[in-house]
UniProtKB/TrEMBL annotation:
Keywords: Ribonucleoprotein, Ribosomal protein, RNA-binding, rRNA-binding. Gene3D superfamilies: 2.30.30.30, 2.40.50.740, RNA-binding S4 domain (3.10.290.10). The gene is rps4e. Residues 91-163 form the Small ribosomal subunit protein eS4 central region domain. HAMAP family: Ribosomal_eS4. It comes from Natronococcus jeotgali DSM 18795. Residues 2-33 form the Small ribosomal subunit protein eS4 N-terminal domain. Belongs to the eukaryotic ribosomal protein eS4 family. It comes from the Archaea. SUPFAM superfamilies: Alpha-L RNA-binding motif (SSF55174). GO terms for molecular function: rRNA binding; structural constituent of ribosome. It holds the Pfam family Ribosomal_S4e. This is Small ribosomal subunit protein eS4. GO terms for biological process: translation. One of its GO terms (cellular component) is cytosolic small ribosomal subunit.
Amino acid sequence: MTKHQKRLSVPKSWPVERKTDVFTVKADAGPHGEDGVPLVVLLRDVLGYVDSKKEARYALSEDSILVNGEPINDEQRPIGMFDIVAFPGREEYYRVFPDEGGRLALTEIDAEAADSRLGKIENKQQVSGGDTQLTLHDGTNVVVDEEYSTNDSIVVDNDDKSIVAHFPYEEGALVTAVRGNHGGKIGEVSEIDVTPGSGSNIVTVETDDGGLFETVEEYVVVIDENFTGEDGDDDE
């Protein structure tokens, strides 16, 4: 199986230039499905910390790069929305967050905020013992003994995997659009229009400037009011 992918065919969320070269690195199997960006792409094309896969492998062999609190040794490990990429030796910490147009970008955060990550609940099911298993947007499973709803967001501690915050999906919730024409926009849910049958529900979101936009429910994620870390100081 080829380890390369044509730049013109990569997902729109990937932070790569599509016309500079023909090929880029292909992500290995893992979290985030086809939307996952190979870690080496962030290290090389976004941060400029390495010039090649060989340099990326060397950096990873030193356990100097953490993803969601765990050292990574695969330069093609998929990185996606809301992952935490940390460089403890540099005292640099980043959250993967959609910018305008839904393209993934790195938002700098502080060390405390890097201890946990946000996940959107996309599915839930009962498991043995009466507990509930939540499946998050990146494929992670979390077993809980409390009630949560699909489309809610939770914040999971990177160390013990406990849930440290819960943001319900409801009118008045702060959300960000992560895909579609409004990707990267942030606002409050003003209306949730439930579509009969199997069609997607339509969400109307009001932005800070009083503007409105509509998108499908699958494209919005509930976030905390301090979540974007625009001031470099996140209080998650």
